[in-house]
């Protein structure tokens, strides 16, 4: 029997400015840890995720263009 992958996302930080939400997530999946920065532009509905090396996650999260 094949087991389904287990994924858990934990929000570490969130900020909003001018209709743009930026969230730093810690993603645990099948024993692997990953940092992920999620960006949502509410004005036009755009959404994307940026994988980040754990030691650079805060640099990605605080990037001045978001």
Radius of gyration, in angstroms, nearest whole number? 14 Å
**SSE string, helix = H, strand = E?**
EEEEH
Uncertain parts = none
Largest sheet: 4 strands, antiparallel
- The helix/strand class is mainly beta
Counting DSSP H or I runs of 4 or more residues, the number of helices is 1
Distance between the termini: 44 Å
What's the mean pLDDT score?
Answer: 90
Number of domains: 1
> Fraction of residues in helices?
under 10%
**Cross-sheet strand order for the largest sheet:** 1-2-3-4
Q: Tell how many strands the DSSP assignment holds.
A: 4
Q: Shape, please? A: globular
| Strand portion | over 45%
What this model shows, in words?
The mean pLDDT is 90. The radius of gyration is 14 Å and the shape is globular. The chain contains one helix and four strands. With 66 residues, the chain is mainly beta. A hairpin with a 2-residue loop joins strand 2 (20-29) and strand 3. It has one domain (7-61).
SSE diagram, text form:
Elements: E1 7-17, E2 20-29, E3 32-41, E4 46-52, H1 57-61
Antiparallel strand pairs: 1-2, 2-3, 3-4
